[in-house]
Amino acid sequence: MKKKHPLRRIVLTGAMTVSGIVLLLALKPTTAPFASQAGALPPQQPPVSAEPSAAGGDPTVPVTEPSAPAGRTPGGSPSASAGPAAPAAPAKRTVTGDVAQTSYGPVQVSITVEGRRITAATAVQAPSGTPMSDQLTASAIPRLNQAAVTAQSASIDTVSGASFTSQGYQQSLQSALDKAGV
């Protein structure tokens, strides 16, 4: 019997290659490559907002024409009874949720509320520091901001590839909603 079987070598070589690739992909750096330099700080990212643009607007909000002034009908003639003035529109306020700690860094959400409606959501803090975190954050946060405004609650879908950031975002968003009473 021969000791060198070509099929055995092929199987062993394939298994070693797969094992090496798995180990390489599983290796996650704990710090940014440039953080070892004296005084190096992770780059700060500006908050990303999901506020609808003036041109685009929110397609779910009906557009209404301005109403006639009190005491006048839409045609412009005075009405018979000039009742009390219409109530003022609810004031906009901004509420910031608690910081949620994730495996990749803190997440904190700030929402702008008008009445009981979320008009904008912004990530005040998001994971950063490594190239991978920066890339995932840049992709996930705008989606999460838009999902929060659309859903009007913390029940939003997790962004694929950023599950820890998504869960932290949902926790901070729920905290902000609780503080706002929405």
What's this, in brief?
The protein is an alpha+beta fold.
Note down, in words, how this protein is organized:
It is a single chain. The chain is of the alpha+beta class. The protein is 33% helix and 16% strand. The protein has helices spanning 6-26, 131-151, 163-180; strands at residues 48-49, 92-96, 100-102, 105-114, 117-125. β3 and β4 form a beta hairpin. Residues 31-45, 49-74 and 76-83 have low confidence and may be disordered.
Largest sheet: 5 strands, antiparallel
Helix/sheet category: alpha+beta
Low-pLDDT windows of residues: 31-45, 49-74, 76-83
**Total count of helical runs of at least 4 residues:** 3
Helix percent band: 25-40%
Distance between the amino and carboxyl termini:
78 Å
